[in-house]
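user: can you give me the structure for this one chain? tokens are fine.
assistant: on it. calling the predictor now.
[tool input]
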Amino acid sequence: MKKRAALIHTGGTFVMEKNMTGRLTPGHSAVSSIENHLLPRYPDIFVDQIELFNIDSSLFTPDYWILLADKIDELYRMYDGFIIIHGTDTLAYTAAALSFMLINLDKPVVITGSQLPLLERRSDAFLNLSSALEVIGDGALKEVSVVFNNKVYRGNRIKKRDVWDFHAFFSPNYPVLIKLGIGFDKKESLFLTPGAGVFKTDTRICRDVLLISFYPGLDFSFYITLVKNSKVKGIVIEAYGSGNIPSDNRTLDNLFSEAAKHGIVVVVCSQSPVGKVNLELYEAAEKADRYGLISGGDMTKEAALVKLMVALGRFQTREEVKDFMLHNIAGEKDKQG
């Protein structure tokens, strides 16, 4: 039976064209180019193109995540799968957000983009979109994924790795789900099992989340002011190594103390993309126990930040938020940590 796919355009480099000054700006030729030059190669897939919006991905905010989730919810029963064209700079955040917002997903949602605009002769746009269509046609992968440079990744596991190379993304702590070469190499044992319930969306989100990346000599006093003024509901810390936290920084102790006093959840991730946080090492263990710090395990910074925003949007108590953060919700973290 012929598959039906919704191709949702949001902008990004994929659709960009040079303006009169030679600078790239969102263009409007991609839809017709795809219709005329790519889709005829896929007679087994009926594709509807939907221009939801057309922006540089650096302009993305949580409002756009919600628009995307709502659009998929609106169209869910009409299509066998969804492809989202997205700019690369914030793609990892959107992929993570959709993985948490689309609950009991049992259809493929594939996000892709390109390093060069579609209209440029060496563009990777058609290759990436072709790969996305192959994933839809196969239909076995029923989760939010990212397709780039002949590889398919779990969406909430990726990071952008290169601004120049066509190999723009990598998945530091989870294997590639599918490799597209001469054949179609699927690692089905790694795929998520769809939830047993009915598909639904939950787009509640709290934006009052702070990301703090450690560096030697950082004074945390500014962040303490934000906490005391109730400007922050949750904090993601990018610590060193496996979660190492400076033991002699009084302003950091004060920040943790104020956060605990105000019921603010603090999640600890690592600045190293590969590996996972272990708060039982070093003096971090004592601080974790005293202040209630939560290990981000092997989550990426992007996934941890978005997950915390989602948790704070859905739950009222600190214990509920903590439970959500510690559990593997959509394949975003190792079940053991």
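assistant: here you go. The first helix runs from residue 30 to 38. The chain has two domains: 3-201, 209-326.
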